[in-house]
Amino acid sequence: MGGLNFADIFETVVATVPDQPALVVRSSDGDEVRLSFAELDARANRLAHALASHGIGRGDHVGCHLHDGNQYVEATLAAFKLRAVPVNVNFRYVDDELTYLFDNADLKAVVTEPHLEDRALRAAATLDWPCPVVTADERYEALLGDHPEHVPEVGERSPDDLYGLWTGGTTGMPKGVMWRHEDIYLAAVGGIGNPGLGIETIADLDDVAARAAGGNPVPGTLVLCPLMHGGGWWLAFSAILSGSFAVVIRDLGFDPAFALQVMAEERVSIVMTIGDAYGRPLAEHLESVGPDAYDLSSVAIYGSGGAILSPTVKEALARVMPTTVIHDAFGASETGGQGRFIATGADGAPRFAMDASNVVIAEDGTICRPGDGRIGMLATRGLIPLRYHKDGEKTAATFPVIDGVR
User: Has this prediction a pTM greater than 0.85?
Assistant: First the structure.
């Protein structure tokens, strides 16, 4: 069919740079996992065969009830390889939330942590259909060992295959935001490129191979926010799908000293965080230990999304990381990346770069025009989701059609 599909993109990168590092998992207890593209591909293929043996196939939803680690990445890729839909499941959810989510997301299988297994099993038992639970311990490794490492046969994949992001916490129970692969790849997962860095937009798999072979001008992304958060997943996979490498920290708590140690030791170029919750402790720790405690010369971009950096924390980060660009961005599960911070105005408020996809909708439902003096709600058009899963009313309200444009 042509077009851009996540599994095809990943396998193209694997074929282009099989021996390059793809994923690094660090832990403060000293445990490490380091996987090349070929190794990650083989493990994802094995898991895909295992899920297929449970009947998982095109359009089925697979829960990723996991902390940051290689299993999260492998489960996501395995689902994509089967044309199934990986579903992010918040590892902090309690029983009632999980029971709701398992049913709302129509989960047909779940990959979970050993200490979360009982919770996942209880939620799965409430469903009216079988939902096997795979636990990421020695049983997971044994399961992978029982299945082959070649790509599963699923027929031709499509850019219309689905990516789902269950978003919650601000407007009630989680809602499943459903995207086409090609649209979310271009909107949020690196496909659109970055002209300022000389990274061109991807049009086809030949472009994917060329980008991977050419080397990334900002190699290595450390994702400090969870992979089950949209922004964290987008940045990690932006690196992996470009032939660069992603670094995640397995620990549940946030230790700024260890995070800075990992930044220095892995020589990452990009750090992804969420607001002051990460920025403040990092800045305070760097101020307390002095500028020579860590070699952060590789860190070109410190990015924050999901919550804005306060002016005081932004100033502190700029002071302690003087060679790093402190980069605010905004967007949503329903928009992908939407705005990029470029300057601070005279009033101290941030100013963002916009493009033709951004519009402002006035209270009367019409589009504001530049200079007409009206205030409205920021929106985007073009690369947007298909719908909320099983919720036509919210879909219609969130994605209106104005002047013939959705």
Answer: yes
